UniProtKB/TrEMBL annotation:
Covered residues, full protein: 319 to 597 of 609
Protein name as annotated: EAL domain-containing protein
All residue ranges annotated as the EAL domain in the record: 23-277
Organism: Phormidium pseudopriestleyi FRX01
Alphabetic keyword roster: Phosphoprotein
Methyltransferase among keywords: no
Keyword DNA repair: no
Highest taxon listed in the record's lineage: Bacteria
Length: 279
């Protein structure tokens, strides 16, 4: 039996039917994607603005579908969440990111952190901590090099439970960042209660900050308030030198975006580390 969301059955109309069938076909192939080794992790560098050097990378999953070619994560992560397939996929992503990062360090490359996206459903797995402890242990990666990216969706749940979970993860030594900040509904004062280490400002605020006064004002306010809450700030989706200049002036800590690099294969990210690529 397929565990698609109940509302998909309710809104059963001819147009939705084909979408539904597409999802079923996709689900069937996604079910085997991990074991058939069709998933690959790409790495997008994260750069420190104090010296322009790479400080880490965000691991971003790619699916090489045997017939349909590359399927972007926005097309299969939501499906994976709906069907529960996010569990094995998320496990594979964590393992691969930790093993890869540890092996770069073992090869003597400058140590950098790796950021892994954790979906809402993964965050709510009862055995998440046990899984993480095991993955970190097996990889040998120092937990301080692992950063977990969570979105504001986790904040709508019971506040005490969420804080307790975050503290449990933090007690293992990993870092926690709040991803896509600004796209949800949480104010910065609300955030104060949660033990985040970093805040990632969503690309929609960073876009055109050199010409868009509203975006500039919002981004700058977010950076200042985040700093007053002792959070480091990463600006996402930085595409131009002009945007970078504004972020630099406003003391943003880290940037990520096409300006420095698109997400790249592990081999290419390793080369950037080796060559000491800088902004
Ligand atoms: P995200 O976590 O916000 O990841 C950043 C997305 O922005 C990536 O898209 C990245 O390629 C894109 N991006 C980075 N810099 C720029 C830029 O300068 N300009 C523009 N236009 N885009 C930029 P991607 O790789 O397609 O991933 C999309 C989303 O899929 C991610 O958004 C994340 O929510 C999800 N995702 C990706 N990998 C995983 C994963 O392993 N697990 C989970 N749960 N979700 C994942
Ligand atoms: Ca992310
Ligand atoms: Ca993001
Ligand atoms: Ca996003």
């Amino acid at each position: 039996a397929k565990q698609l969301g109940g509302n998909q059955y309710q809104s059963y109309t001819p147009t939705l039917q084909s979408e539904f069938l597409d999802d079923l076909t996709l689900e069937t192939s996604l079910r085997y994607a991990v074991e058939r080794q069709e998933l690959e992790l790409y790495y997008q560098p994260i750069v420190g603005l104090e010296n322009g050097k790479i400080v880490g990378a965000e691991a971003l999953v790619r699916w090489h579908h045997p017939q349909q070619g590359m399927i972007p994560p926005v097309k299969f992560i939501p499906l994976a969440e709906q069907t529960g397939l996010i569990a094995p996929i998320g496990e594979w992503v964590l393992q691969t990111a930790c093993n890869q990062t540890k092996s770069w360090q073992a090869e003597g490359l400058p140590p950098v952190r790796v950021a892994v996206n954790l979906s809402f459903r993964q965050f709510n797995q009862v055995d998440l901590s046990e899984r993480l402890v095991r993955i970190l242990d097996e990889s040998g990666l120092d937990p301080s090099y692992l950063e977990l990216e969570l979105t504001e969706s986790i904040l709508v749940q019971n506040v005490e439970v969420t804080i307790a979970k975050l503290n449990e993860l933090k007690s293992m030594g990993v870092q926690i960042s709040l991803d896509d900040f600004g796209t949800g509904y949480s104010s910065l004062s609300y955030l104060q209660q949660f033990p985040f280490d970093l805040l990632k400002i969503d690309r929609c605020f960073v876009q055109d900050i050199n010409t868009n006064a509203t975006n500039a004002a919002l981004t700058n306010a977010i950076i200042q308030m985040a700093h007053s809450l002792n959070l480091k700030v990463i600006a996402e989706g930085v595409e131009t030198r002009e945007e970078l200049a504004v972020l630099y002036e406003n003391k943003c800590d880290n940037i990520q975006g096409y300006l420095f690099s698109r997400p790249v294969k592990a081999e290419e990210f390793k080369r950037m580390l080796q060559e000491g690529k800088r902004l």
